[in-house]
Amino acid sequence: QVQLVQSGAEVKKPGASVKVSCKASGYTFTSYGISWVRQAPGQGLEWMGWISAYNGNTNYAQKLQGRVTMTTDTSTSTAYMELRSLRSDDTAVYYCARAHRLYSSGDYWGQGTLVTVSS
Amino acid sequence: EIVMTQSPATLSVSPGERATLSCRASQSVSSNLAWYQQKPGQAPRLLIYGASTRATGIPARFSGSGSGTEFTLTISSLQSEDFAVYYCQQYNNWPPGFTFGPGTKVDIK
Q1: Is residue B86 within 8 angstroms of chain A, CB to CB?
Q2: Among candidates A59, A106, A108 on the partner chain, residue whose Cβ is nearest the Cβ of B94
Q3: Does B93 touch chain A (CB under 8 A)?
């Protein structure tokens, strides 16, 4: 069965960086991409970007361009999302989701990773 | 950026009743529209993609319709496990990026 398992919760200071991992299993990793979505406490969902696990091509949300980097490691079927220059409003649960291509929905989701940014 | 709006914000429904949720896009997104269900403390779950195609394992009581700027999610007969927040998402316009609606909470009447 398809599973996406994310890394554990993180606490970071403003200005720091965080890197969240998402380990995939149950399907051919390079046949799909991974989208990242975040959700601030009590708020709605925000799409952050998508990466192709086939060739590493990325498409980021314009508002995060320059602060976010998405990568994959095909040897371990793991996707990573790094967010830099963290601010308090980056406090959120970060989700990865399998998405066949850029213009597609996320069909299987990870359990989420809480990132707290606080001084 | 395409702005997604959802109505109503909260929908109170009795078990067994029909629920109709609306989603509107500020410009056409063709049929590149998905619906997700989210329960407290859980990740979103894909219900509908391509505006009207049920995702794997989704019961037939969930149906989606619409194209362009107006979309509807219908739950034909609400079960206890359907009380949750429902989000629509357009995945038609990048850049600047795909956007979600603010959600409709379906609660027990």
Answers
A1: no
A2: A59
A3: no
Nearest to B89 by CA among A47, A67, A51: A47
Q: pLDDT in tens for each of the 109 residues of chain B? A: 999 999 999 999 999 999 999 999 999 999 999 999 999 999 999 999 999 999 999 999 999 999 999 999 999 999 999 999 999 999 999 988 999 999 999 998 8
Of B34, B97, B103, the CB nearest to A105: B34
Whether A44 has its CB under 8 Å from any CB of chain B: the answer is yes
Two tokens, residue A31: 């046949």
pLDDT at B109: 87
pLDDT in tens, A34-92: 999 999 999 999 999 999 999 999 999 999 999 999 999 999 999 999 999 999 999 99
- Beta-carbon contacts of A50 under 8 Å, excluding residues fewer than 6 positions away, are A33, A34, A35, A36, A58, A59, A70, A99, A102
B37 and chain A: CB distance < 8 Å anywhere?
no
User: How far, in Å, are A36, A91, A114, B102 from residue A10 at the CA level?
Assistant: 17, 10, 6, 26
Q: What is the DSSP letter of A101?
A: S
**Distances from the Cα of A12 to the Cα of A17, A28, A90, angstroms:** 7, 33, 10
d(CA A101, nearest CA chain B) in Å: 10
Contacts of B34 in chain A (CB under 8 A): 105-106
